[in-house]
TrEMBL record:
GO terms for molecular function: oxidoreductase activity, acting on the aldehyde or oxo group of donors, NAD or NADP as acceptor. InterPro entries: Ald_DH/histidinol_DH (IPR016161), Ald_DH_C (IPR016163), Ald_DH_CS_CYS (IPR016160), Ald_DH_CS_GLU (IPR029510), Ald_DH_N (IPR016162), Aldehyde_DH_dom (IPR015590). Gene3D superfamilies: Aldehyde Dehydrogenase, Chain A, domain 1, Aldehyde Dehydrogenase, Chain A, domain 2. This is Betaine-aldehyde dehydrogenase. It comes from the Bacteria. It comes from Prauserella muralis. Signal peptide: none annotated. Keywords: Oxidoreductase. The keyword Oxidoreductase applies. The lineage of its organism: Bacteria, Bacillati, Actinomycetota, Actinomycetes, Pseudonocardiales. Belongs to the aldehyde dehydrogenase family. SUPFAM superfamilies: ALDH-like.
Length: 482
């Protein structure tokens, strides 16, 4: 049965004012999965107006912190109660293996709401030791206001949750805008918010293409934009947001280096890097994508990781054996293939992969895990974010050059170091410019740990107490006691 979804504006589920709709497809087959309302400019205005009204409505502003916490906790419970259905919907709409949806996306979404439920009662100001006699000074942390939460297509439910939960914990109102390729689980999350009892207008949800994101970014009644997506779009959001100097948080692209030191456990490094590179078919902003391997170990590492990559089962996300699911769209599959062809043209040596499958998978957006060796720092595949199952292996002889080479990029989201030497681990962790550095492990995330990057990887941090700072304004209060 085909899915049909509407917009959530001011607590009501409505069609787009124009009646427009668009289709969302299963990337494993490119068949239509559902039809959703296609919001226009008037719908954007209506959603922003509803959020602005809810911002002063006592049914929301009058809630105690403990009551707000209970609402967030209830959303987490509803995510758990509907986990199987949500996981299947995430897999069908985005393509990620069902095992990933069940063990990564759904648990993280629920835990983020629980984590920020705990923060509701802990958003505190402080007294300041001002040097003016007879004056009491203290600070308050107040909601930023109306927040546009614009999410990407690679982990739609999870990333929507880690924006929505802290925004609500701080007392803001929001407009959720999922990527047009993968709208369904975000709409489902908005429905759970309604079911949990969050007052009308506090959470609004618009399904629409990039033009709505641009309209929200420029809207004079939007106070903050939180965006996860490409660096190119992030730059456009900054320009649009400057119209009223709204607050902006950006989590953008990445080109994560993974250093395999001479003393590394190669088998552990192969296993960890394979998973760190190919989770969700490489459609992860923190995916390990350029591997700096000591030249004395490069043949062993290359042979083992290429062999392992070539054996990974590829297929629809709903298949229980699938490790490599489809890419999100035909256009993205073409983008990945174009960069692979560029790598070959620039002289990189293709070891395995580099092609789309034939047979029963040909109708989907599949791409075989691809390993290049002989890659140099100036090659396109070593510099541009591919966002697909492509691994580029580079070599090094002088460990002293590693930090400089790892930092020779516009991005700075994540990095990894594989070594059994504590000095190497801590020295490189300090020297590499990245928001998160992982030592001998996968790029895990946790609600208690900040997430974000340097340079072209974005502005600000999500999750942890950092998100509380991002979704509040600090007000100073001065009282003359003399």
């Amino acid at each position: 049965m085909e899915i049909r979804e509407q917009l959530l504006i001011g607590g009501a589920w409505v069609d787009a004012a124009s009646g427009a709709e668009f289709k969302t497809c299963d990337p494993a087959t490119n068949t239509v999965l559902g039809v959703v309302a296609d919001a226009g400019a008037s719908d954007v205005d209506a959603a922003v107006a509803a959020a602005r009204q809810a911002l002063v409505d006592p049914t929301w502003t009058g809630l105690t912190p403990a009551a707000r916490a209970r609402l967030l906790w209830r959303v987490a419970e509803l995510i758990d109660d509907n986990a199987d259905q949500l996981a299947e919907l995430e897999t069908r709409d985005q393509g990620q293996p069902l095992s990933v949806a069940k063990t990564v996306s759904l648990p993280m979404a629920a835990e983020v709401f629980r984590y920020y439920a705990g923060w509701c009662t802990k958003i505190e100001g402080k007294t300041s030791a001002v040097s003016i006699p007879g004056i009491l000074h203290y600070t308050r942390h107040e909601p930023v206001g109306v927040c546009a939460l614009i999410t990407p297509w690679n982990f739609p439910l999870m990333i929507a949750a880690w924006k929505l939960a802290p925004a609500l914990a701080c007392g803001n109102t929001v407009i959720l805008k999922p990527a047009e390729q993968t709208p369904l689980t975000t709409v489902a999350l908005a429905r759970l918010c309604v079911d949990a009892g969050i007052p009308a207008g506090v959470v609004n949800c618009l399904t629409v293409g990039p033009e709505a994101g641009a309209a929200l970014s420029a809207h004079p009644d939007v106070d903050k934009v939180s965006f996860t997506g490409s660096t190119e779009v992030g730059r456009k959001i900054i320009v649009a947001a400057s119209s009223n100097l709204k607050r902006v948080t950006l989590e953008l692209g990445g080109k994560a280096p993974s250093v395999i030191a001479r003393d590394a456990d190669i088998d552990a490094a192969v296993t960890g890097n394979l998973q760190g590179a190919l989770l969700n078919s490489g459609q992860v902003c923190a995916a390990y994508s350029r591997f700096y391997v000591d030249s004395s170990r490069v043949h062993e590492f290359t042979d083992k990781i290429a062999a392992a990559a070539s054996e990974l089962p590829m297929g629809p996300g709903l298949s229980p054996d699938t490790v490599i699911g489809p890419l999100v769209s035909p256009e993205h599959a073409e983008h990945v293939d174009r960069l692979v062809r560029t790598g070959v043209a620039e002289g990189a040596q293709l070891v395995v992969g580099g092609k789309r499958p034939h047979g029963e998978l040909a109708t989907g957006n599949f791409y075989a895990p691809t390993v290049f060796t002989g890659v140099t720092d100036d090659m396109t595949i070593a510099r541009e974010e591919i966002f697909g199952p492509v691994l580029s292996i580079l070599t090094y002889d002088d460990a002293d050059e590693l930090a400089a080479r790892a930092n020779d990029t516009d991005y700075g989201l994540a990095a990894c170091v594989w070594t059994q030497d504590l000095t190497t681990a801590h020295t490189l962790a300090a020297a590499i410019r990245a928001g998160s550095v992982f030592v001998n492990m996968l790029p895990y995330l946790d609600p208690a740990a900040p997430w974000g990057g340097f340079g072209a990887s974005g502005w600000g941090r999500e999750m942890s107490s950092n998100a509380i700072d991002e979704f509040t304004e600090t007000k100073g209060v001065w009282v003359n006691l003399a």
